[in-house]
Amino acid sequence: MRKDTSMMLHKGEEPGEKMNLMDYEYSSSEDDDYVRTDGTRRRTREEWIRYYKQIEESEGFDVDPIPGTCEHGLTGLENFDSVTLVESTKAAIEHFNIENNTSYKFVKIERATCCVAAGFEYRITFQAVDGEAEPKTFQAITFYWIDCSITVDFCRLKSSASS
Fold this sequence. Notes:
Elements: H1 45-58, E1 75-76, H2 83-100, E2 105-116, E3 119-129, E4 136-145, E5 150-157
């Protein structure tokens, strides 16, 4: 019995040929196809390229929000007043203090990203201060679970190389 492969061919392609995906030419007019009926839209190809580059270069900490879009995966946040985000940040600096015998206090969130899966995975860049010293910038990955518990994966001082 012969398997019909015609459904797997691209236009102009012969059986046995493989399509070279690098031959695809993107047209910005395709972006019109990304708008949903509720007014939100999918990210454009250019936004996806920038998104993945930012994730790679910053370990997911410095991903720009893309307003008006609704996508799964790591999302740059604009509102840093969320109770779950603030509680997660305070748990992160508490974790750092215990591990390093310090007494930093949370000051403010600078950037944050979130991925939703059985709760919120946050990648947070924030400032904290120890006494009268100048605030320092930290990075943390935390999980705010659906049972409202918080797990801190790590909390570290942000390296000057990643500034």
